Each structure stands twice: as structure tokens, then as C-alpha cells.
Amino acid sequence: MNPVFVCGRRAFVPPSFLTVRLRVETTLVRCELAEHPPFQPHFAYAADRPDALPEAVWAVWSDRDPTVRFHVLADCDTGNGQEGAEEHYCTLFEAHPAPCSWAMICLHREVDALMAEFER
Hints:
Blueprint: E1 10-12, H1 17-21, E2 28-30, E3 42-48, E4 55-61, E5 69-74, H2 107-119
Antiparallel strand pairs: 1-2, 3-4, 4-5
């Protein structure tokens, strides 16, 4: 089976009342979906929803329209079917395009983890 990589396309989140109110901590977000065709929108986790429902705020943009918009989307609760330490749940939103987050390789996270190991 070929590895599936995270898209990773970046976008800048504009400062606004919404980003301050939600305590969005970064102005740069990366698409967390699997690599996809350019006509499909990009989605990046932006913040937890303040009322603590199983929903989150996602930044959404496209290659054709780089304007970042925010959508509240229900959490995906799909697990990988493993047990114990091998059990993982998807960190994306409900009804996202396949695959789930636990089935993808995110090179940015891999590099960050490797750098953290070297800093020890």
C-alpha cells in the first residue's frame, strides 16, 4: 500500500475579531487533508469551539480563492480499530474526504518530532 501524505498547503489567517475571540494562536495554518486536487478546498484546524461541543472551528480556503473563511464542523469520531496504545481517533471533521488523519503521514509533524529528539 502506498503511503498517503497530508496536503500541507499553507494559508495566512487574517487578524479579525473572530480569531481574537477564539484565541487562534497562529496566523499560519496548513491543510490537514490528504493530498487532493487543486479544485478541492483546503481545511485546517483553527480552534476549539468555546462551548466545548464535539465541534471545532476550521479555516477553509481554496487555490482559486485564498480568502480564509471559518466553519464550525462536527468532529470525526472514526477510530482505527486497534486497541490499547495502538488505538487512534481521527482529528479531522465529520464527513471529510478519505482518509482519516491516523492513516496519513504528515511530513511537517515528522520533521518537528525529529527536531525535538535532537534538542534533547
